[in-house]
Amino acid sequence: MDLGLAGKTALVCASTSGLGRATAAALAADGVTVVITGRSEDRVAQVAAELPGAVGIACDLVAPGGVDRLIEATRAAVGDPDVLVLNGPGPAPGPARTTDAAGIDDAVATLVQPQVGLIRAFLPAMVERGWGRILSIGSTSIEAPIANLALSNLGRAALAGYLKTLATEVAAQGVTVNALLPGKVATPRARQVDEASAARSGRSVAEVEADTAATIPAGRYGDPDEFGAVAAFLCSVPAAYVTGTAVRCDGGMVPTL
User: Which partner for 187 in 18, 135, 168, 255 could form a disulfide, CB atoms 3.0-4.6 Å apart?
Assistant: First the structure.
């Protein structure tokens, strides 16, 4: 399928590894000029060099002024992008009953404010062109909250509600707004989680992975490239009638429709 993306530009947040990198790679393979971002300048430069036509911008979005610096650097490199992919880490784990005001502020500062800032900056040009794609790499927690991740559940749900509202406002202007929700995908972050679980339980990492895979109808972890392919489609020209929705890429893990 021709995704119709050749010659377009994309800003992919947190794209030096994992799902962000897989998404950036899929877009670059379809002829998109991709802006690679991350906190490590060396890692950003490395990944940008690995992808055809990519540009690297090192930036910490949650640092003071980080959003404004990324906006300015992106415009200097590629102008206002056609595609905006929102991605990034969540707040620290913890139960709901210990959630306090500081934790809520952290969740919003991490999972809502930077994303809204980027959208507010780049959306007007998308509307003026009559074409744009906004995609959030989210979490299945917005449909099935995950135990001991109260702040992440809170922040991601808030962003999802904002994005759904936005989607209805800009659909007629040719801009789609969607979320892509990963299940267990074989990323460095998933490996870290499994290693921590193994250390706590006294099991091997292989045993933890096998137990987790057994809970997934597909019987395995996802491949990052599989996730990237779905992300690229949602950013494509043929996906113009898909908006205001959350698509799961989880091997059937979440037990709801």
Answer: 18
